[in-house]
Amino acid sequence: MSGAPAAGGTAAFDAIAPDYDASRGGTARAVGFADQLAPLLDPAAAVLDIGVGTGIVAAELTARGHRVFGVDLSPGMLARARERLGARVAVGDAGRLPVRTASVTQAVSTWLLHAGPDPRAVFAEVARVLRPGGRYLVIPARGMRPTDDIGRIVGELEDRLDPGGARQDAPGLLEPIAAAHGLRYEGRASERPAVFRVSPDQMARSIAGGRLFTGAWQVREEDLGLVAEACARLRALPDPELPRVREMADFVMVFRRVD
Ligand SMILES: C[S@@+](CC[C@H](N)C(=O)[O-])C[C@H]1O[C@@H](n2cnc3c(N)ncnc32)[C@H](O)[C@@H]1O
After folding, report:
1. Tens-place pLDDT, residues 209-255
2. How far is the CA of 69 from the centre of ligand 1 (A)?
3. Which numeric CATH code is attached to 9-144+164-192+250-257?
4. Of all protein residues, whose CA lies closest to atom 26 belonging to ligand 1?
5. CA–CA distances in Å: residue 118 to residues 1, 56, 157, 166, 225
6. Is residue 255 within 6 Å of ligand 1 at its C-beta?
7. Domain coordinates of the chain in residue numbers?
8. pLDDT per residue as tens digits for the range 74-120
9. Centroid of ligand 1 to alpha carbon of 150 (angstroms)
10. Does the beta carbon of 185 lie inside 6 Å of ligand 1?
C-alpha cells in the first residue's frame, strides 16, 4: 500500500474534504439532488441526512425550506458541513446512529452506501430510528451504470476490484437488505437523466492512477495491474479519441418502514 488512504473510512474522506465539492459536480450536483429529493419530503417534519458529508446537498434542502440535521463519520467533511449548517450536524456512524429510536419521520442519504459503511448495519439503524411509516430516500452513486463500450470495461474493472460487492449500491442489492430490516422498497422516484460525453482515452487517463469508485479512495497497489489492463482495453477500442455520448440517470430509491 502506498501512502494513500485506506479504502473507505474517514481517512479517505478527511483527505479529500477540501476538494470534495468542486470535484463532485459542485453546487450543480447538489441543486439537482435537492430538486429530486424535495418533492418527496414533508416540509413539516425534520430531515436526517445520513452521510451528510460537506453538507452541500443538505444546504440546498435547507434553502428549499427543510429543517435538516446531519450525521457523518468524517470530521474533515463535517467541518465544511458545520460552516453550512451550524450545530445541526454531528460526527456519527451510519451503522450506529446517535439518534433516538422511532424519532425520525424522514431520512435521506446521497452517495453513501457505496462509500464504505456496511449497508446491513445502515438499514438496521434506519429501521430503528424511523417512526412506523417513515421513509428513507437514497440517491445511489452506482445505481445505473452506462452500458456502452466504456461502461462495460469500467464496470468489469470495478467488479474485479470489489469481488465482495462492498462498494455496490444498486437497487437489486439494497432491496433484500432493506426488506430484512422491515423497510419496504417502494421503487424509484424523481428520475433525472443525464447525458455527457467522454472518450475512451479520457476515461483511461482519469482512472490510470487507480482513482475509481467516484475517486473516494485509492485502489490497492497490488490491484493496479487490473487498472492498467482496463486502460489498455479502453485505448484499444475503435476511435479511442472519439467522445461517446453517455447516458446515465440519477434517481431516488424510496424505502418505507412498514411495521
Ligand atoms: C461520497 S460522500 C457523499 C457526501 C454527501 N452525502 C454528498 O452527497 O455530498 C460519502 C460520505 O459518507 C460518509 N461515510 C462513510 N462511511 C460512513 C459511516 N459509516 N457513517 C457515516 N458516514 C459515513 C463519508 O465520510 C462521506 O462524507
Report:
1. 766 655 445 678 888 899 999 999 999 999 999 999 888 889 999 99
2. 14
3. 3.40.50.150
4. 53
5. 23, 23, 21, 7, 27
6. no
7. 9-144+164-192+250-257
8. 999 999 999 999 999 999 999 999 999 999 999 999 999 988 889 99
9. 27
10. no
